[in-house]
Amino acid sequence: MRLFVSEGAPGNLPVLAAAGRARGRAELLISTVGPEECMVPFLTRPKVPVLQLDSGNYLFSTSSICRYFFLLSGWEQDDITNQWLEWEATELQPALSAALYYLAVQGKKGEDVLGPVRRALTHIDHSLSRQNWPFLAGETESLADIVLWGALYPLLQDPAYLPEELGALRSWFQTLSTQEPCQRAAETVLKQQGVLALRPYLQKQPQPSPPDGRAVTNEPEEEELATLSEEEIAMAVTAWEKGVESLPPLQPPQNPVLPVAGERNVLITSALPYVNNVPHLGNIIGCVLSADVFARYSRLRQWNTLYLCGTDEYGTATETKAMEEGLTPQEICDKYHVIHADIYRWFNISFDIFGRTTTPQQTKITQDIFQRLLTRGFVLQDTVEQLRCEQCARFLADRFVEGVCPFCGYEEARGDQCDKCGKLINAIELKKPQCKVCRSCPVVKSSQHLFLDLPKLEKRLEEWLGKTLPGSDWTPNARFIIRSWLRDGLKPRCITRDLKWGTPVPLEGFEDKVFYVWFDATIGYLSITANYTDQWERWWKNPEQVELYQFMAKDNVPFHGLVFPCSALGTEDNYTLVSHLIATEYLNYEDGKFSKSRGVGVFGDMAQDTGIPADIWRFYLLYIRPEGQDSAFSWTDMLLKNNSELLNNLGNFINRAGMFVSKFFGGYVPEMVLTPDDQRLLAHVTLELQHYHQLLEKVRIRDALRSILTISRHGNQYIQVNEPWKRIKGSEADRQRAGTVTGLAVNIAALLSVMLQPYMPTVSATIQAQLQLPAPACSILLTNFLCTLPAGHQIGTVSPLFQKLENDQIESLRQRFGGGQAKVSPKPEVVETVTTAGPQLIQALMDEVTKQGNIVRELKAQKADKNQIAAEVAKLLDLKKQLALAEGKPLETSKGKKKK
Amino acid sequence: MAAAAELTLLEKSLGLSKGNKYSAQGDRQIPVLQTNNGPSLTGLTTIAAHLVKQANKEYLLGSTAEEKAIVQQWLEYRVTQVDKYSNKDDLRTLLKDLNSYLEDKVYLTGYNFTLADILLYYGLHRFIVSIIVIGFFSVIFRMIFFNLS
After folding, report:
1. How many CA atoms within 13 Å lie on the side-chain side of A326?
2. Contacts (Cβ under 8 Å, ≥6 apart) of A762
3. What is the mean pLDDT of chain A?
4. Has keyword Ribosomal protein (chain B) (predicted)?
5. How confident is the model at residue A824 (pLDDT cuts 50, 70, 90)?
6. Residue A726, Cα to own-chain centre: how many angstroms?
7. Distance of CA B94 to the CA centre of its chain
8. Which residues contact A527 (CB under 8 A, 6 or more apart)?
């Protein structure tokens, strides 16, 4: 068969990426033809790429060519793929060819290009996040992915056209772009020139007509609005009408919380923070905050939930810190444990217990696990050569030795790695080694150590993983890390250290040694539970009844997913092992990394000094949770999300709903007579609520937060369309309509307060107090939207929930925490283009405009005198004019400005 | 013919007893089928292929890799070209191309009758007058009146 392509034809991309599938099954010749050559005899107009089959038949549709290649490789077609390809041909292509034409041929930029395709991009993003699949048609890459990737690549390879908020689309696109066949196709077709490589071809094509005359909208939710069935609507209405009666009785709080047979029992841990380090925002979102959202959600579902964490206290670092500060290790731990506990209390983390690892229970359980491993033959002994400082009378951990790099001669190489050449170093190979504490020269001594025989446990581990992983919610990165460790083969791991500050090793000849922290830190979860209740084994030796969720950043995956399970399996003691391992990627700070030493980034104890409430921190960190890929904390973005999503969307809706009740109906929820439109809204809210549940059950925390914001957007739209503030002044029918709209809106606000509880507990409680939401409805979330505030219910006093974050406030915070990186300005595009006035002047004017705008808004809100308002408006317009001048538009006047 | 009516007609000709209910989405009234097991399906050709499988008549989707790809190609042609022609010239070109493609063929895949023939026939039905007026009726006419009857 013969493939005809033309330089720069967009269809080449998917076709070449799919062609590999046919390799070895048929001979494929590729010929390049001109863009205007007609290769298909029966088609009047030129069309490439075209595949001429050996039978003489032609395939002239790009997706059919790809489909053919896939079919040759034994792939079977299915409904979902068909649906994606039909959507690609009928919806995506018209929009995309317009966008590519604007971009490559007409040189348009920004929203002109993105506008036509935004809706389609959002559709892909939503489908990916709704289905919870990494690929369009399932767990593996398939035809639909190749066809859509190929179509989108020329546009999305420019990050400017890959909107940041479409996280699922982003990670899908990036995953595919790194696959080898795709990468090669991209290089062949775009030749490193980006979209311009398509220009010669697109120029010869007729200008595509703009996609259907639908208004371009940023409201992506709209598209989902059409697909409700009558049954769904009827069911939503029935559930709504039942109201609070359908809530189960509230279970009294248990102390201690223990698993109950026949119920769902959820045990949640977040990685134990090392006691000496004050956690930064990345640590907080990676472990404790993520786990907290899930724990709170789990309690809203009335599952038996135990959430625990604590400080990891043993180890060399604590010993050294104690020496530095002139305290004992125990005193250091006591001191820092309190700092940790305070930070988490400020962030409102709902631990059932926040314990520590330096307890008698830790010793007892660790030694017991060790003894059982020893008697079952899973512990080896071996000699290890180590550096010992005779002056300090101790063996030196890698990070306490410095010397000359044996590879490059760098003078200050560390004991584990050379900072100059980057090579890994075995500490005893260092030339001229020095003890970092006393600067004397250590000597090489051999020392006996114990090893956990992981190779011997590997088979049991694989059996357990084979049973656990399928159908579980282990995050993809955790699965990947475990798979790659197993692929490389497990090696025995040393579990002892020549230290004093640790759990003693109960074996003759090892009296002066302790367990290595990674062996006993994960046992900390068990001992912390044992400190909480003497019935701890009902949680930890009960795998049939307990589901264990463990939250951590991805660097902790091997210890939780592999090493601890091996230890536990080796004891043959029926331990509860991790059912769902939830690992995040990393959170960066602005454009770099958090660094305590360089003073870059926000650390847990500083967040409270910013004046920004804990719930706002929680919201923003969860909004950017590094779920599936690294993400970055950005001050500007935090301001934006606070002001747009919280203030204008969520806060605005909830506040308006409550205000209407108190202003128009004397604080009593009015009668509601639902029209078919209201019923549809009920069903939409129900659908989104169910989506929220689906996501949170799969621990897709960041995505579930989007559902909350979507519902409040629906709510805002509903109020906007129905205008209760106008109808309240109208006829009897109008007044009744205003009542229904207000009543439904305030019930949506009540629902939102519960959905918000895992994310923003304080705000949630404030809303519930304002609305006087009855007790069981505050603490239980069902999968249906209920009328929890029936007609006649009296609400409390309503007040605004959120405060605006101001530019200068954020700017000064950025400078305070920025280290050396405060280069990003809140309006970079303005600053860059300015040649006429200094950025300070512009910034000052912008601030003035903002301030004046607020004055005008306030006057209008107070219904002040018209002349007064007009005068202030004139000032505002003048300021805006000055700003425009300073920014260099229009040109003539700006020159005058420059001379000044 | 509205998409829903077309799909109902297809159900009948496939011998499917239970009539599905279709909703329509957006301005272009794209058909949506809520299936019993699983998510809804959107799009005329997607649903049509689904119905064919439901009726255990997979052969209507083509039996070789080549046939399957050709069937899908013409299904795509139906929804992207036939349903979206914008002016008389386009229509003329479309019919001329089809006519010349079918000149040496009995059906779209050659010798086997498939879903592509059914949907293209439904799609062209509304142009029947134009087809006769423009005069490309020799082949398409045959297709419509002989092969599908």
Report:
1. 0
2. A348, A613, A614, A615
3. 87
4. no
5. very low
6. 41
7. 15
8. A355, A357, A359, A361, A362, A364, A365, A366
Structure tokens at B50: 């689904």
Chain A hits for B34, Cβ within 8 Å: 229
Return d(Cα A432, Cα A555) in angstroms, integer: 32
Looking at residue A727, what is its pLDDT? Answer: 94
Tens digits of residue pLDDT in B90-127: 888 888 888 888 888 888 888 888 999 889 888 887 77
Asked if the C-beta of B29 comes within 8 angstroms of chain A's C-beta atoms, the answer is no
Chain B residue with minimum CA distance to A77:
B68
Bigger pLDDT: A637 vs B148: A637
- CB neighbour burial string for A210-225, b if at least 16 within 10 angstroms, e if fewer: bbeeeeeeeebbbbbe
A528 band by pLDDT with thresholds 50, 70 and 90: very high
**A353-356 vs A304-311, strand pairing mode:** parallel
Query: For position B135, what pLDDT does the model report?
Result: 55
The predicted pLDDT at position A253 comes to: 85
Q: Do A87 and B44 touch (CB under 8 A)?
A: no
Amino acid at A539: W
Cβ count near A306 (within 10 Å): 25
Find the angle CA(A624)-CA(A630)-CA(A635) to the nearest 5 degrees.
45
H or E element at residue A2: strand A2-5
Hey, how many other C-beta atoms are within 10 angstroms of the C-beta on A108? 14
Chain Cα centroid distance, residue A389: 45
Determine the angle formed by the axes of helices A329-346 and A316-325, rounding to 10 degrees: 100
| Residue of A137, A49, A76 lying closest to B65 (CA atoms) | A76
Flag whether residue B40 sits within 8 Å of chain A, measured between CB atoms. yes
Burial (CB < 10 A; 0-12, 13-18, 19+), residue A719, is buried
Mean pLDDT of the region A337-349: 95
Which residues are within 8 A (CB) of B135 and not within 5 positions of it... i.e. 6 or more apart?
Answer: none
* pLDDT greater at residue A568 or residue A112: A568
CB atoms within 10 A of CB A893: 13
Q: What is the arrangement of strands in the sheet containing B22-25, beginning at the earlier edge strand? A: B22-25, B30-33, B41-42
Can you give the C-alpha Rg of chain A in angstroms?
A: 32
- For the cut 90, the answer to whether the pLDDT of residue B138 exceeds it is no
Chain A within 8 Å of B45 (Cβ-Cβ)? Answer: yes
Length of chain B: 149
Which residues 104-123 of chain B have a CB within 8 Å of chain A?
110
Q: Per-residue DSSP letters for A197-223?
A: GGHHHHHTSPPPPPSSSPPP-S-GGGG
pLDDT at A596: 65
Under an 8 A CB cutoff, do B26 and A226 touch?
Answer: yes
Q: Which residues contact A259 (CB under 8 A, 6 or more apart)?
A: A265, A267, A304, A538, A539, A542, A545, A546
Q: What is the ipTM of this complex?
A: 0.93
Determine which helix (DSSP H) or strand (DSSP E) holds A292, and give its type and residue range.
helix A290-300
* Whole-angstrom distance, CA of residue A248 vs CA of residue B107: 63
